[in-house]
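Closing statement on the uridine-diphosphate-N-acetylglucosamine sub-project.
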Amino acid sequence: MSLDIVILAAGQGTRMRSALPKVLHPVAGDSMLGHVIHSARQLNPQGIHVVIGHGADAVREQLAADGLNFVLQDKQLGTGHAVAQALPALTGDTVLILYGDVPLIEVQTLERLLKRVEPEQLGLLTVTLDDPTGYGRIVRDEHGCVSAIVEHKDATEAQRAIKEGNTGILAVPGKRLGEWLGRLSNNNVQGEYYLTDVIAMAVGDGLVVATEQPHDAMEVQGANDRKQLAELERHYQLREARRLMALGVTLRDPARFDVRGEVSVGRDVVIDINVILEGRVVIEDDVVIGPNCVIKDSTLRKGAVIKSNSHLEGAIVGERADAGPFARLRPGSVLEAGAHVGNFVELKNTHMGEGAKAGHLTYLGDAVIGARTNIGAGTITCNYDGANKHKTVMGEDVFIGSNNSLVAPVDISSGATTAAGSTITQNVSDDQLAVARARQRNIDGWQRPVKLKKD
Ligand code: UD1
Ligand code: CA
């Protein structure tokens, strides 16, 4: 069975009060439309057709990807008109309609819906709500069979009392769609071409409308304003928190934990409050993450410990290695097993060997540091000469005294020591001591200056 998916995303979203097109507003770090496209892809359709209008250029620019067909709807004349714009590109046996501003729809729900489509049957996703104000109402006949959808604004009082609402998501036999869309009229309160009118046409043609409901009403909740956007965000985050807890993660507070990307976790991971995980994050068994950490596109190997208030991006933290509190690991930072990075230490494109240590107040950029090497407090690599970046290389078991400036390119070989306060500009060989600072002079009987009297 071949499938085409049409995602409606042309609307303006006035109530967002935003320069950004509505469907580009983010939920959990990805645009709402991005989430819908992600779910759509998992159904392996032959085509995904995104109907765009308001902010079309911005949407195209942000989401352009292989296998996405953007269709322009110049004027937003209604949901039926929107689907009709994609019609020339639709050749699948089944056409599934989704909404660019309904981001939390679950793939399993869509799979259930798609199972209901047959040549003589279509699948409609409905939701029963205490307050269905604004929703199209599902009208059923005396046998309980769906006969039509009536939009809220067009409904009678009796119809408005119906609690079963139209989610807008439906799956129809592709061969029939064109004919039904061609028969739509805009003779209604809103003067729009309603996609929902297709239901009564299908029933008139002898088709059966099979309904499914989502397990959770939030799956079909759209975001029309910032309040609803925030509700979707919280719902997404709680869902993600529950997923991770089910996999064996302790979250000190699932309500104070945010994922903005894809996270894989091992067992017995402990995550304290206010942690944000972004991009692709891999967390292996027994990792502990302290409060207030931001971890982006990073891998934390078994037993790694990230202490509070640390910021990691593009980093690999090896087994039992630890970083923080207040550590900053920038892209290309690698800590081998058991390495240690302490407070106010910044690393960029730097490799720390097994058991290497930088405990305090240090900047290490473009450096390769051998196993067990110890970097004293206040040390920096001078890796940038104003035009180019240069490398600092340290062997194994090197001891860098406190407050060193290591002027790259420079090589400090295994077992070497540098004295505190040194500015190292020349290579140091194995087991040498380098002292590169002014000698201390002690002057006897020093008279301190005295304060001058003001007349
Ligand atoms: C629609 C349904 C209603 C359902 C509700 C669920 C119709 C006629 N009504 O109503 O039964 O209960 O959704 O939220 O379908 N869009 C376009 N082009 C257009 C018009 C709309 O792309 O010309 C897009 C919008 O961007 C939006 C979606 O279609 O993503 C729904 O449009 P909207 O105007 O919000 O429909 P509702 O009136 O809410
Ligand atoms: Ca709507």
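The helical segments are 32-41, 56-63, 79-86, 107-115, 157-160, 174-182, 197-204, 226-246. With this model delivered, the sub-project is considered complete and its resources will be redirected to Aim 3.
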